[in-house]
Amino acid sequence: MAKAKQLTVWVEDRPGILGEVASALGAKKINIIGFIATVVEGRGAIRLVVDKPAAAKKVFSERGWETTEEDVLQVALGDKPGALGEAAKKLGEAGINIQYAYTGSARSAAKVNTFCAVTDVAAAQRAVR
Q1: How far is CA 123 from the centre of its chain?
Q2: CB 3.0-4.6 Å disulfide test: which of 73, 107, 109, 116 passes with 101?
Q3: How far apart are CA 129 and CA 27, in angstroms?
Q4: In whole angstroms, what is the distance from residue 65 CA to residue 29 CA?
Q5: Neighbours of 92 (CB within 10 A)
Q6: C-alpha–C-alpha distance, residues 23 and 19, integer Å
Q7: CATH number of the domain residue 113 falls in
Q8: What values do phi and psi take at 75, rounded to 5?
Q9: CB-based contacts of 99: which residues, under 8 Å, 6+ apart?
């Protein structure tokens, strides 16, 4: 189990903004490993894990997009029934609440990374080992 740096870019909630964000990253050869796009209090909140967080932050800053960052738990799950249930159950048994979760690409074709915003990343890492 690993820890990943998640960036949240706060943008205007309007058609095309996800394309703008993704294209801006692509133009700088920054790979999106996982993302979730939602609306929070009237603003677009695009949470991403990328291969080059510092470069992504620079891209966002150059465009005037507010960015926050936080650590999230990264769990590589087998691509099989019950894999998510097993990991989530371990976190629950350790008293760790999952605030939200999303999946993204993994280096292995047989696995997918799942990113979980939790209250205590270090404890979550220990719980899912």
Answers
A1: 18
A2: 116
A3: 37
A4: 19
A5: 12
A6: 6
A7: 3.30.70.260
A8: -125, 125
A9: 116, 117, 118, 119
Residue where one domain finishes, among candidates 20, 39, 69: 69
- Residue type, position 16, single letter: G
Please name the amino acid found at residue 11. V
Q: Which domain holds residue 16?
A: 2-69
Q: Are residues 10 and 60 in the same domain?
A: yes
Tokens for 116? 């979980």
In order along its 129 residues, the chain shows pLDDT tens digits of: 689 999 999 999 999 999 999 999 999 999 999 999 999 999 999 999 999 999 999 999 999 999 999 999 999 998 889 999 999 999 999 999 999 999 887 776 677 677 877 888 999 999 888
Residues belonging to the chain: 129
Q: Helices in 1-129 by DSSP H: which ranges?
A: 17-27, 53-62, 83-93, 121-127
Amino acid occupying residue 100: Y
